[in-house]
Amino acid sequence: MKPDNGQYYPSYLQLEKILDSQHPLSFAEGQEPAHDEMLFIIIHQAYELWFKQILFELDFVKKVFSKEKVDDNSEDLNLCRHRLKRVTTILALLNQQVTVLDTMTPMDFLEFRNLLTPASGFQSKQFRLIEATLGLKMERRHQHDYYKRTNEGGFAQNDFNEINSIEASQTILQLINQWLERMPFFDEKFWKGYAAQFPSTQLHPFWNDYRSIYANSLTEREQQKLTDFDTQFIKEKQADGSFSDAAMRSALFIMLYRDFPVFQTSFQILDTLIEIDHWLAGWRHKHYVMVRRMIGMRVGTGNTSGAGYLEGAVQQHYIFKDLAALSTYLIERKRLPKLPEELIKALGFIS
Ligand code: HEM
After folding, report:
1. DSSP annotation of 237
2. How many angstroms separate the alpha carbon of residue 120 from the centre of ligand 1?
3. Which domain range does residue 322 map to?
4. 81, 122, 156, 261: which could form a disulfide with 302 (CB 3.0–4.6 Å)?
5. Exposure of 313 by Cβ count < 10 A (0-12 exposed, 13-18 middle, 19+ buried)?
6. Ligand 1 pocket by Cβ (under 6 Å)
């Protein structure tokens, strides 16, 4: 019974619904109750609740970056930083949560495993929406034919449609790419007073210098890295599921000059995206190790090859690996070209 004066904790939280949503199949009449099925259900539900919160935060970030102009000094950008950071904290918790499931032994699981077929975490729509919202494309997935199905073990048609529609809309990766491309750091007007260190070429004076300093920093065994540098930052490159050359230049520039206060928020946003990838990969790995212990090399209830499939996904499902790879192209702080005054002044007013 709800008291009359104001909100009542159980009703505000709709606990009646939530706490009436655990119905282990093995507890049904005629079955042998498997004690650990309760844990199995609750842990999945807890994951799904957190997935919901992650999607809520990612949708906010998507909205901000969908604006035609993102003011780098605005509170919006700071809120994105803050909320993306929250996503990493939730993901850290989700990594930790695997240890609770690890208290279930393979024999405990075997007691109810057959009842689940063909359901599997593979069918978690929210997990797929998180991946798709961030920017993991269907065709870039490990064994992507597994996903293209609505038959047994696959997705219900409406879930499948929803995942496809989020994939077809702009992803956070694409929006960040566009935001980086719009950054005006290399406008000629800011570089008139720049003191170049190396003879000029057709490259922008900053990149001409940076490329030479980088080349001089490479050891003999690393010479190939200069070709990779050109592929990432110099040659024209479209953003097909990764970042364009223009976006990569801005991202590297932000990484290099992060100590300027105006770059702090942008730097932290990029850094947090890398961290999100790390936590997701960490979770995939922990889940894979847990699955290998739980079912060995048997196929999954969702009908993939099981541990083999999950191991491939750990390797391949990084979303922001271009950003993480920026470290390959850093140079020592003391060798950084000194930025021209005009640019430093202008950086305070980027829009
Ligand atoms: C006894 C515990 C568990 C076992 C044995 C298990 C097993 C598996 C297997 C074998 C797969 C591959 C798909 C398949 O063929 O079924 C899979 C995928 C997946 N599972 Fe689990 N799982 C367990 C617990 C969990 C939990 C607690 C979650 C939390 C939501 C979860 C989420 C997922 C997700 C999201 C995938 C898809 C992964 C991807 O495609 O990268 N699983 N699981």
Report:
1. -
2. 6
3. 35-186+238-329
4. 122
5. buried
6. 43-44, 47, 101, 109, 120-122, 124, 127, 284, 287, 291, 294-295, 300-304, 306, 309-310, 313
Best residue for ligand 1 mutational test, from 120, 141, 144 (most atoms within 8 Å of Cβ): 120
* Structural domain count, the chain: 1
The reply to whether 171 falls in a domain is yes
Q: Is 179 exposed, middle or buried (0-12, 13-18, 19+ CB in 10 A)?
A: buried
Ligand 1 atom with the shortest distance to the CA of 98: 27
CB proximity list for 57: less than 8 A, separation 6 or greater: 83, 84, 86, 87
Residue 13, SS3? coil
- Ligand 1 center–CA 142 separation, angstroms: 15
- Contact (CB, 8 A) for 118 and 224: no
Pocket test for ligand 1, best of 149, 152, 287 (most atoms within 8 A of CB): 287
Atom of ligand 1 nearest to the CA of 284: 41
Determine the residue of 310, 314, 318, 319 to mutate for testing ligand 1's pocket, defined as the one with the most ligand atoms within 8 A of the Cβ atom. 310
Name the pLDDT band for 351 (thresholds 50, 70, 90). Answer: very low
The protein residue whose alpha carbon is closest to atom 35 in ligand 1 is: 121
Span 72-115, pLDDT tens digits = 767 899 999 999 999 999 999 999 999 999 999 999 999 999 99
75 or 10: which leads in pLDDT: 10
Look-up: residue for tokens 């260190």?
Answer: 197
Stretch (H or E) spanning 285? helix 264-295
What CATH number does residue 249 fall under?
1.20.58.480
What is the C-alpha to C-alpha distance for residues 342 and 291, in angstroms, rounded to an integer?
Answer: 57
* pTM recorded for the entire structure: 0.94
Give a yes or no: residue 12 inside a domain. no
pLDDT tens for each residue of 22-63 = 999 999 999 999 999 999 999 999 999 999 999 999 999 999
Is 339 domain-assigned? no
Q: Name which residue sits closest to atom 43 of ligand 1, judged by CA.
A: 121
- 200 lies in a domain? no
